[in-house]
Amino acid sequence: MKTKEIIKRKRFIYVSRLALASIFILIAFSVKAQDNIATKLGYAANAKLLIIHADDLGVSHSENMASIEAIENGSVNSASLMMPTPWVLEVANYAKKNATTHDFGLHLVLSSEWKNYRWGPVSSIEKVPSLINEFGYFHEGCTPTVNVKEVEVELKAQIDRAYSMGFEPTHLDSHMNCLFQSEELIEVYLKMGKLYKLPVLATKQAVPEELLRKYDIQILLEEVLTIMPEEYIKGPEDYYINAIKNLKPGLSTFLIHTAYNNDEMKGMNIDNTEWGNEWRQKDFDFFTSDTCKNILKEENIILVTWRQVKDAFYSN
């Protein structure tokens, strides 16, 4: 397949994933009635709770450093690591050192989407042949024909590697939404949450109700907010300010990407304009700004973390 066709397909998949994520309402199913999540976390029932979450840590040194700075000095309060990526050890060590105060989950990976910057599975390639191309890398986009048993092998390998590094994740989510391509893959994803006693990012629209009940998914988010290309063109700051001002009561999350627009990211993002180096710099700029801090305060937004959610719902 020609490079331009691959890039076009990759962007379509990624945009589709984020378009769906932007409208998904996350719900919780349990075998028994549950309290309002805000009250369970110790807040008023009508409180506006927000997780500001940075994806893709481990993908580059720039992504790591910008995200750590955004956590330490900005408004970002959650992030997730990609275990197969080249720079994951750096941020895993940071997460381990800040295990009691910071919120780091796992961004489970089945794809390797950049043009010249690739990675492969954590497990042995002989064990997961359907997940890789002829060079041993993950496929460029989400591939619905992957072997479900091999997916389970790889996801367990990614999670086990995190624990072997001394890093204990607070939650699980899915890179590029690849784990939501079929009911079989969704079940593997939910199974990982149950096996490791971790909350997972799961949506009513994407997950059959019987699976949510079967795996006792207990996370309730009102909205998943992420900026789309058409909104980015109009101005990221306007989008984020408007989203914060219109945040609904309950628990919501921003999914963002924070990195510096430097030579490392420019090389990594060659031939890519969406969610690339400039985009990620602008995410960093807004979520480390006084504008962001002030608007959160003015709107009485309470920042909470997946760690708090995990402790509230998975402590027993």
Automatic annotation (TrEMBL):
Q: Which cofactor does it need?
A: Mg(2+)
Superkingdom of origin organism: Bacteria
What GO terms describe the biological role, i.e. biological process, of this protein?
Answer: carbohydrate metabolic process
Is the keyword Magnesium assigned to this protein?
A: yes
Where is the signal peptide, in residue numbers?
none
Gene3D superfamilies from the UniProt entry: Glycoside hydrolase/deacetylase (3.20.20.370)
Q: Please name the GO terms that the record assigns under molecular function.
A: deacetylase activity; hydrolase activity; metal ion binding
Output the CDD domains linked to this UniProt entry: YdjC_TTHB029_like
Entry keywords, A to Z: Carbohydrate metabolism, Hydrolase, Magnesium, Metal-binding
The answer, when asked if Nucleus is one of the entry's keywords, is no
Instruction: List the SUPFAM superfamilies hit by this protein, alphabetically.
Output: Glycoside hydrolase/deacetylase (SSF88713)
Q: Which PANTHER family match?
A: CARBOHYDRATE DEACETYLASE, YDJC DEACETYLASE FAMILY MEMBER
Q: What is this protein called?
A: YdjC-like protein
| Species for this entry | Lutibacter flavus
